[in-house]
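Table S2 (continued). Query chain:
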Amino acid sequence: MAITSGEVDAVDSGLTALGKLIEGDAALARALKSPLYKSEEKSAVLATLTEKLGMPELARKFVGVVALNRRAGELPSIAKSFAEKAAKHRGASRITARVAKPISKDQTLSLESAVSKALGRSVTVDVEVDPALIGGLQLKMGSRLVDASIRTKLNNLTNLMKGA
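Corresponding output:
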């Protein structure tokens, strides 16, 4: 539907913003997953949020249907899935970079540029922070994982020492 109406980019940016908003607010995320609240209540809250985010009508209706079907807690993962499909539609790839500490916008753009150059196609990078990595980064492209984290290197060294 978003393709035929020409709203892929607008729906993508709206759903991504909503997904990040939900992930960034633990209380909201818990409330959307909780069976204690009726789906109509969740839908009303989400309708207000989608309006404040300026999401297109198509995206707002979709979010409402998701909430009424008791799937409001899954909106962040739905937004990520839609973002991947939208990137494919645009001819780009979407990858996830896990880092130990938050990185700047410039570093993210530099990473996108380097990965795009290496793969020979346009790439959009989603950054996730995982302090357990200690340092380095992990790149996930579909089902492939490139792991250059300190945690993995330490685990490999520990396993090597156990075998000696």
